[in-house]
Write a structure and sequence with these properties.
The protein is mostly helical. The protein is built from 8 helices and no strands. Helix 1 crosses helix 2, helix 1 packs parallel to helix 6 and helix 3 runs parallel beside helix 5. The termini are far apart. The mean pLDDT is 86.
Length: 261
Amino acid sequence: MRPDVSQSPKPEERELAKKSAALAGLQAELAQRELDLATLRAELRDFERRYLRIVGARYAELDEIEAQITEALAQLAPQDIGIQEQAVHARTQASESAQASKIAAKQAPLKDFTPSENLKKLYREVAKRVHPDFSTDETDHVRRQRFMAEANRAYEEGDEARLTAILVEWDSSPEAVKGDGIGAELVRTIRKIAQIRERLMRIEAEIEELKRSELHQLKMEMNKGVVEGRDLLEEMKSRLDEQIVAARSRFRDMSLTRPAP
């Protein structure tokens, strides 16, 4: 009996099946790496807020006292250009520190970013379905970017309900219904594979850049301290408190010894 050739997969069908399998694997990898990047960003953002509230506020206070001391010295030596420049620099630094401290004070309460496994699962699912690199045209790309930006916010805020709602809204939208021929689907799949690989390269570069940042290095030092049973933020806070007391004492002594105008 001769084999029924009509039932055998066509070359383009076999190629599409192979590329589709490769795409599925890359989509899962991309979703995980997007999750890794989003988690790292959120952790660094929360750590920065914690640092600015605990340590930054004290730096702002210390910078303000040092600026007042330098300005007092500048008043005593109005012809000394060097001291005048130091006073301007000290005041600028104090203003910048105060501004950073005010911004941190308006942020959400101190907390550690600890996403649940369900939150991570929901985010990965959103990334696999909604990611902008899966777009087929500019309109679709813009729409996916909007959904993904909202998903990133929901993830950082730990909002599982919003992530679930995003998935429901995406799956129930008219744009989710598509019909394609094998040839067009094959070309689209190949292009999606190329897009995902390019995005993975960008993610790796951004993660490496974040890990090289001073903020991340400081966070790693803090984490190391926790393993050793130390709270390095608390230690920095105590040292700054001592420096503030000493600076206040110096400024008070200057005020007592300055000649009356």
